[in-house]
Amino acid sequence: MDAMFYMKKNKEKDAEKAKEREQKEQLKNVNITDTAESSIRKTQHGQEKKWKQDGRDTRANLKDVNITDTAESSIRKTQHGQEKKWKQDGRDTRADLKNVYISDTAESTIRKDQHGQEKKWKQDGRDTRANLKDVNITDTAESAIRKEQHGQEKKWKQDGRDTRANLKDVNITESMETNIRKEQFGQEKSMKQEERETREQLKNVSIGDTAESSIRKTQHGQEKAWKQDGRDTRANLKDVNMATATYEADIRKDQHEREKQWKQTGRDTKANLKDVNMATAVYETEIRKDQHQREKDAKQTERDTKDSSKDFNMASAFYG
Question: pLDDT tens for residues 59-101?
């Protein structure tokens, strides 16, 4: 069986190679002229070669330059260490949980359903492309608009590159706008600091009755009286026959049955999951805890950086 299979495969390979040789023989005297695509590819290749050469020249020119630590480099080092720690924690967690059997939950069922839908959507896309691969799509109004937009975007990016190249040696001094932005930033920092200090000072303060609390108590009493009136009304009318069913009554009954069914489903789910220990660590909860801790650390680092850099003169740092 294996020999027949390999013989068939070898025949297919030989036929494919023969077809390639025949095509090469037919096309060996064909002169391929430049097209729009080939011109674009040549331009892109030239740009990439220039970009790589600029990188090599820059590294050669800066090989003896000693770059000292800055606030940005310190933050990047910290972020890199956090990312390494996060990845290592993930590897350790997976190693610790590799023998843990996680049963199906409501969330895992939803995720499986979503994964199946996504696979079906991708397969539909592949099937559509396969069915339309021989269809020649002519230019339409939409394609013309997209080409025009693409040209405008390319021109806008090129203008930005040209502007940066023309202004690379321009020393931008402080202006009215930069001073206003610095002042606004300082005001925002002071406002946030005052809020933090106020919360810290008032964390142990007991707030007594105020006009607002009195109004809330009055509203709460009114709401309780309203609910009690409703209960009394239902108790008084429990033996009253509301006559024949109406369209609205049928709709309300249907809604009531659906709500009862939904509540019963919730109670059954709670009963089925009452012995599940949610405190037991699983991979997803560990990742969420880790993400939460990283986010807290990042925010604390940002606050510390702002505090340490509040007296830092950015103009002198950039322009000497």
Answer: 999 888 887 888 888 899 999 999 999 999 999 999 998 888 8
Which of these, 136, 115, 103, lies nearest to 275 by C-alpha position? Answer: 103
Q: Which residues contact 207 (CB under 8 A, 6 or more apart)?
A: none
For 258-287, write each residue's pLDDT tens digit.
Answer: 999 999 998 998 888 887 665 555 667 788
Q: DSSP string covering the chain, please?
A: -HHHHHHHHHHHHHHHHHHHHHHHHHHTT------HHHHHHHHHHHHHHHHHHHHHHHHHHTTT--PPP-HHHHHHHHHHHHHHHHHHHHHHHHHHTTT------HHHHHHHHHHHHHHHHHHHHHHHHHHTTT------HHHHHHHHHHHHHHHHHHHHHHHHHHTTT------HHHHHHHHHHHHHHHHHHHHHHHHHHTTTPPP---HHHHHHHHHHHHHHHHHHHHHHHHHHTTT----S--HHHHHHHHHHHHHHHHHHHHHHHHHHTTT--TTS--HHHHHHHHHHHHHHHHHHHHHHHHHHTTT--HHHHHH-
- 200-212 tens-digit pLDDT: 888 887 767 777 8
CB 301 within 8 A of CB 75: yes
Q: How many CB atoms lie within 10 A of CB 57?
A: 10
What are the tokens at 160? Answer: 């930005």
Whole-angstrom distance, CA of residue 196 vs CA of residue 58: 46
> 116: closest CA among 126, 105, 124?
124
C-alpha–C-alpha distance, residues 100 and 287, integer Å: 16
Q: Is the pTM of this model over 0.70?
A: no
b/e code 291-311 from CB counts within 10 Å (16+ = b): eeebeeeeeeeeeebeeeeee
Q: How far is CA 65 from the centre of its chain?
A: 38
Phi, psi for 275 (deg, rounded to 5): -95, 5
- The amino acid sitting at 287 is I
